[in-house]
Amino acid sequence: MPGLSEMSLRDAIYGLRATRIFHDKPVAPQVLDEVLEASTMACSSGNTQPWEFVVVRDPETKRRIQIEMLDAFSTIDQERAQSPEQLVDGAGRPVTGRAAVDHLDKVPVIVVVCWNPERGIRMKGEYAENPDGTLRETREIPGGRGVSLFQACQNMMLAARAHGLCSLFTTFFFLKRERIKEILGIPPQIFMECAIFLGHGDEKLGKPKRLPVSQVSHADRWGTPYRLHAETAGGDA
Ligand SMILES: Cc1cc2nc3c(=O)[nH]c(=O)nc-3n(C[C@H](O)[C@H](O)[C@H](O)COP(=O)(O)O)c2cc1C
Question: Domain 9-210, CATH 3.40.109.10 — does that match?
Answer without folding.
Answer: yes
